[in-house]
Amino acid sequence: MGKLRGKVAVVTGGATGIGRAAAKRFIEEGAFVFIFGRRQDALDAAVADLGPNARAVKGSVSDEADLDRLYAEVKAERGTLDIVFANAGAGSPLPLGKITAEHIDETFDTNVKGTIFTVQRALPLMGPGGSIILTGSSAGTTGAPGFSAYSASKAAVRNLARTWAEDLKGTGIRVNVLSPGATATELAKEALGEEGQRAYGAMTPLQRMADPAEIGAVAAFLASDDSSFMTASEVAVDGGLAQL
Ligand SMILES: NC(=O)c1ccc[n+]([C@@H]2O[C@H](COP(=O)([O-])OP(=O)(O)OC[C@H]3O[C@@H](n4cnc5c(N)ncnc54)[C@H](OP(=O)(O)O)[C@@H]3O)[C@@H](O)[C@H]2O)c1
């Protein structure tokens, strides 16, 4: 333990699910973590659980002013930033034939625009040794029925790491994508339903969904110097779902 000792991290979507599990693991490894999300009650509950090395900032990744406020708080309180886990994301199914402009805008505003500005606005606080982790999805690689907008948005996230590894050449900042498979969180419950979750568990070679802590453990690896020669990579943490 302690591989993130003294590091400062931002985790978007850090109040629940994968983000919260990652924030917990980052703190166990010695980091100070700012979690970011839109629901104050969820943020308060998370900070009560995560303890004194967590701070919550309320806002949306789709709102650049909110992100500026987040990073102003990080700067005021810690002065610097080592780790950005751009994890906030959302998605619901709508089959081809039923897709609306609102559905596309909503999905891309959070998953693509939100990811871009989460990272872009963080850069002035980051330096050599910095690690950026983007949350992709097995859905970005495979075809998932009804998930056109979500899957396309996650395929876009996968490319952001490739492009940014180029843009970040010479800065000492690394960027990688962590792509979970089916993981037992609120999002999975809402997007897949009980039956869909069972089906995804059954489709997965490890024959179950992931516990969010299993994704958080790999996020901590990517955040730490243990992954110091990794950039532009996609790390699948999917029980084999998208690998066969
Ligand atoms: N669970 C899975 O099976 C699975 C599989 C592959 C990839 N993923 C990805 O993993 C990431 C985390 O999802 P999860 O499964 O942990 O679901 P979750 O528990 O619903 O977490 C999503 C988090 O993102 C936050 N969020 C959503 N929109 C936001 C916005 N505009 N601004 C700021 N925060 C926002 C939510 O908080 P507020 O609503 O309070 O803002 C929530 O805390 C997502 O990117 C998702 O696409 C999940």
UniProtKB/TrEMBL annotation:
Q: Sorted alphabetically, which keywords does the UniProt record give?
A: Oxidoreductase
Look up keyword Cell division and say if it applies: no
Q: Name one GO molecular function term.
A: oxidoreductase activity, acting on NAD(P)H, oxygen as acceptor
As recorded in UniProt, coiled-coil segments are: none
Q: Which SMART domains match?
A: PKS_KR (SM00822)
Q: Which domain of life is it from?
A: Bacteria
| Name assigned to this protein | NAD(P)-dependent dehydrogenase, short-chain alcohol dehydrogenase family
